Amino acid sequence: MEIRQLRYLVAAIEKGTLSVAADSVFITQPALTRSLKNLEHELGVDLLERLPRGVIPTPAGDLLYRHAHLIINEVKKIKADVPLAAEGVVGNLKIGVGALFAQHIVDDVVWQLATTHDSLSMGITVGFFEGLINKLVEGNLDVVFSSLPSVNVPEELIVEPLSDLHVSFVTNKDHPLAEKDVCDSKDLEAARWVIVDQPHAAAMFTQFFASQGMVTPASLVRTDSLELIHSLLKRGGFVSVLPRHLIHDSSVNDNLVELKVKGPPISRKFGLIYREDIAGRPLLAPFFEGIRRACKEIEEGSY
Predict the structure, then answer these.
(1) Largest CA distance in the chain
(2) What gap in Å lies between CA 29 and CA 37, rounded to an integer?
(3) CATH code for the structural domain at 86-164+269-300
């Protein structure tokens, strides 16, 4: 099996026809077809199903396609990193950051790395858990720093919890509920809500109401934009659930307040997620050290 064969397979599956795939990798169609046939013969399985107007992957082809993406991305990293290895910490580090942490912890760590390692470049992708994990598995990210919902992750990933994320109910300081000593179930059920539109966030939200014997609110806005959540809260009339560090950041939420709500506190872990095969990559070490140190300071109350 050769890297070029994997590239040809990826091109064939993504383009959907062998002629277009051949053009995209700058070889003739007969040469591409012959290379893919040789790969199928070597593995002993059909990788593509030939249709009248193109090709689609077989189950085996789909599995190899996902592995091929990862291998091709790793080869790109090797070509970029190895020539510069003698210079110390160099190369391009691709970091995935949970949207809740883009202005918390990670900004300090990235600033420290950028100002102390002149040969290190970084690409920062901000998103939500599910999307970041997919990019990590595909090799488009080296590491993810995020909250850690109670969901299964692919077995090749290492999940390293580092600290606790505390979540609170929040609204505008002028909202009627802001004046209440304690919000009861009727208050919460009748409120107009805006929440993060992600499976794990929706599950946490629903689980809280169910645990308190309440009905999930009917007036509910879901969005994948934290900026929109902040904007709606500031305009008034909405209630949400947000991590306390975002609520207490006066530069972002100077007119928001925490609601006092009956029931146990809501919390979950946050930390690092990375693939086992790159855990020891020297390029990752400074980032790991910075994140672990910052989270330890949070635990000790000195961050």
Answers:
(1) 75
(2) 12
(3) 3.40.190.10
Do 172 and 234 touch, CB atoms closer than 8 A? yes
Check: pTM over 0.70? Answer yes or no. no
pLDDT tens track, the chain, 303 positions: 888 899 999 999 999 999 999 999 899 999 999 999 999 999 999 999 988 889 999 999 999 998 888 788 777 766 666 665 555 556 788 999 998 888 788 988 999 888 887 777 889 999 888 889 989 988 889 999 998 887 788 888 899 999 988 888 999 989 999 889 888 888 888 899 999 888 777 788 888 888 878 888 888 999 988 889 989 998 889 999 888 877 766 445 568 888 988 777 788 889 999 988 777 777 788 899 999 998 888 877 655
Residue range 166-266 forms a domain whose CATH class is alpha beta
Domain limits of the chain? 3-78, 86-164+269-300, 166-266
- Please determine, looking at this structure, whether the domain spanning 3-78 carries the CATH number 1.10.150.120: no
Cα–Cα–Cα angle for 294, 291, 276, nearest 5°? 150
Bridge-partner residues for 158, per DSSP?
274
* DSSP H or E run through 210: helix 199-211
